[in-house]
């Protein structure tokens, strides 16, 4: 999987794993990382599924619903790739913070919900659950910051709330921020994510 690794100035900080939205690439979220944790190491991926030329992390159907087979396959590949790259670049895969937006947030959320060895910390901008039946292993110790727009035309408020409930019902520590905005990512959300990240190191 195409990726970019940028060593951090402070290796004691949790590394960021950047997962872009539809149509992005491995450089799309670097400015967000500069705000959230400017001194942390960065591992940023480019989704390798093409939707009419737009990069995605997994496929979806014409009506917008998830291709669950693709989601499962690509989630497994992503989790394994992070573990392999942790060895290559000498960081602890257990300490990474997934930072995902939209499509990238959805695959990160799916990893948390389906793979106990995946992300223990995540920042999810505008995410929703897949709708598939999930395992029921405990997420105690997993910490998630999630933002949602009540007027988001792509990720409904109901969908975002369903994800929050799915995480909390399995004992994850979830902090949430709701805005009046649509699907666009706002500076308020990014700065709140920064504050959450900083608090994880207090």
From TrEMBL:
GO terms for molecular function: hydrolase activity. Residues 81-183 form the Dienelactone hydrolase domain. It comes from the Bacteria. SUPFAM superfamilies: alpha/beta-Hydrolases. This is Carboxylesterase.
């Amino acid at each position: 999987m195409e990726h970019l690794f940028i060593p951090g100035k402070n290796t004691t900080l949790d590394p960021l794993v950047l997962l872009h939205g539809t149509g992005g690439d491995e450089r799309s979220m670097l400015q967000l990382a500069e705000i959230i944790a400017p001194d942390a190491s960065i591992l940023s991926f480019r989704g390798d599924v093409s939707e009419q030329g737009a990069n995605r992390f997994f496929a979806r159907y014409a009506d917008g619903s998830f291709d669950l087979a693709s989601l499962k396959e690509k989630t497994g590949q992503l989790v394994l790739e992070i573990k392999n790259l942790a060895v290559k670049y000498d960081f602890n895969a257990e300490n990474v913070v997934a930072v995902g937006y939209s499509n990238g947030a959805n695959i990160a959320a799916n990893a948390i919900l389906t793979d106990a060895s995946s992300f223990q910390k995540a920042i999810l901008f505008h995410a929703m659950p897949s709708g598939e039946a999930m395992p029921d292993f405990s997420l105690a110790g997993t910490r998630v910051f999630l933002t949602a727009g009540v007027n988001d035309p792509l990720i409904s408020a109901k969908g975002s709330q369903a994800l929050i409930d799915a995480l909390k019902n399995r004992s994850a520590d979830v902090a949430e921020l709701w805005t009046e905005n649509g699907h666009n990512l706002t500076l308020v959300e990014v700065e709140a994510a920064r504050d959450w990240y900083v608090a994880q190191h207090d």
